[in-house]
Amino acid sequence: MTRYAALLRGIYPSNPNMANDKLRWVLEGLGLDRVSSVLASGNLLFETPERDVPDLEDEIQQALVEQLGIRGGTVVRTLGELRGLLDSDPFPGLTHGRGTYLTVTFLKDGARTPPELPEATDPLVRVVGFDPGARAFLAVIDNSDPGRTPDFMAWLDRTYGADITTRTWLTVQRIVAKLEAP
Q1: Source organism's superkingdom (predicted)?
Q2: Quick one: 20 and 72 in the same domain?
Q3: I need a labelling partner for 174 at 20 to 30 A (CA). Which of 103, 106, 134, 158 fits?
């Protein structure tokens, strides 16, 4: 069995159709095993025999649309891909917090990968790298000024559309810890 994380885009816990119990119910209905969730922002974990990731993404997304009306987008990663990302230590010496908001933006499997890293369009954003194994941009965002929002996320949305979803580094660490639990 392979362990996976389905990272859903556009989940709002205040929407009753987006509650973790309903999201887990959809994945269980697909025959996925050991379905669980991390936080209330669309991080679903499960096991299944090894599968083609784009097919798995499409199957989950189709079920979410048909059963709950959720159209946000689904990105799937294996435990091995996420563990490899953590082990690469892309943010050495940094701690997630105000001024150093550590983010990971996952591209949907099969999405156009960048030929080179984007240049920072905002002085409050430092693109650290692109991890090809996890298919993810890594960035440090300075969000210490509540009156100014960096535009990196808007650039990613304009460039990749709904084929992305972003998590904090802390959330990725939590997902991996739960996937590795017995």
Answers
A1: Bacteria
A2: yes
A3: 158
H or E element at residue 159: helix 152-160
> What is the per-residue pLDDT across 68-103, written as a single tens digit (0 to 9) for each?
999 888 999 999 999 999 999 999 999 888 888 899
Q: What pLDDT digit, counting tens, does each position of 127-136 carry?
A: 888 898 999 9
Q: Which of 72, 73, 90 is nearest to 136 (CA)?
A: 90
**Total domain count, the chain:** 2
Overall size of the chain counted in residues = 182
If one counts every other C-beta atom within 10 angstroms of the C-beta of residue 68, the result is 17
DSSP string, 99-148: TBEEEEEEEPTTSPPPSSPPPPSSTTEEEEEEETTTTEEEEEE----TT-
Pair 46, 31: CB distance under 8 Å: no
